[in-house]
């Protein structure tokens, strides 16, 4: 299986393998692609054929087999990179981020960075942050610790882990569904159904944990726990690599 680490040197590859063992993912995904597949209905029928001819049960073992299969029909299995998005800070808003720009393509080789894009606000104004994905754990840890030098700006930039924050439903205050899926209007302060929180003088009561705070309060333990769970893989790396002291630094 191809591992997205061709851009690393031998030492870095070894370090990457060690990090992959230290930080196992919940779930591993692969990308299956094919060449010369016109003779087959789709890639699944090709994989089925490989299974029948070569007695392969595990799809991941297909790659060594295709070589014997005379190269005419190729099936490539590539490891999908870890799901660890990063943010690159302080990149001038006026710099256009064009995915075909050779600078950006070069960053895949130098830093293992792909899918680089500008972050825009809801009203379409650009921020000074870029979002990107990394090809390997080695690159992720290296970027968070050492930052990145961009030819685009002739500057060194800090790189941060992108954390996903659980959203609170703006209609009822629940942390378990999106606002657009909500059928209830509740006061975000006390949880009652008959008024909105602007007019509310009641004692705050959270609809999620019954605690004495507003439902959309950052101090809610259930909200914090949900954020910790959703970001567990990222936080585990950040703490063990001493990039942050503890999860309290973030939540
Ligand atoms: Zn709701
Ligand atoms: Zn109320
Ligand atoms: Zn609460």
Please describe what this structure looks like:
InterPro entries: Znf_CCHC, Znf_CCHC_sf. Residues 168-184, 186-202 form the CCHC-type domain. Residues 1-21 are annotated as: Disordered. This is CCHC-type domain-containing protein. It comes from Brachionus calyciflorus. The chain is an alpha+beta fold and 251 residues long. The protein has 3 domains: 30-79, no CATH class; 86-161, RRM (RNA recognition motif) domain (Alpha-Beta Plaits), CATH 3.30.70.330; 179-230, Irregular (HIV-1 Nucleocapsid Protein), CATH 4.10.60. The chain is built from 7 helices and 8 strands; from the N terminus they run H-E-H-H-E-E-H-E-E-H-E-E-E-H-H. The chain has helices at 10-22, 43-54, 62-68, 102-111, 137-146, 221-230, 232-240, and strands at 30-35, 74-79, 86-88, 113-120, 126-134, 148-150, 155-157, 159-161. The protein has a 4-stranded antiparallel beta sheet. A two-stranded antiparallel ribbon has the order 1-2. The longest helix has 13 residues, at 10-22. The model has no long low-confidence stretch (mean pLDDT 89). One zinc ion binds next to loops.
């Amino acid at each position: 299986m191809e591992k997205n680490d061709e851009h690393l040197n031998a030492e870095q590859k070894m370090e990457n393998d060690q990090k992959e063992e230290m930080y196992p993912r919940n779930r591993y995904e692969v990308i299956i692609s094919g060449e010369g597949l016109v003779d087959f209905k789709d890639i699944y029928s090709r994989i089925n054929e490989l299974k029948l001819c070569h007695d392969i049960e595990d799809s991941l073992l297909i790659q060594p087999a295709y070589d014997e299969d005379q190269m005419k029909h190729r099936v490539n299995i590539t490891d999908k990179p870890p799901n660890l998005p990063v943010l690159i800070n302080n990149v001038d808003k006026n710099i256009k981020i064009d995915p075909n720009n050779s600078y950006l393509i070069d960053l895949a080789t130098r830093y293992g960075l792909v899918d680089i894009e500008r972050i825009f606000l809801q009203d379409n104004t650009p921020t000074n942050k870029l979002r990107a994905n990394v090809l390997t754990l080695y690159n992720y840890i290296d970027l968070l610790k050492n930052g990145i030098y961009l030819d685009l700006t002739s500057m060194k930039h800090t790189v941060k882990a992108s954390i996903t924050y659980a959203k609170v439903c703006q209609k009822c205050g629940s942390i378990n569904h999106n606002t657009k899926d909500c059928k209830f209007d509740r006061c975000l302060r006390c949880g009652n159904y008959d008024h909105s929180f602007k007019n509310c003088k009641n004692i705050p009561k959270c609809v999620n944990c019954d605690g004495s705070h507003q439902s959309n309060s950052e101090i809610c333990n259930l909200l914090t726990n949900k954020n910790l769970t959703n970001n567990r893989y990222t936080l585990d790396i950040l703490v063990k690599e001493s990039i942050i002291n503890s999860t309290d630094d973030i939540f």
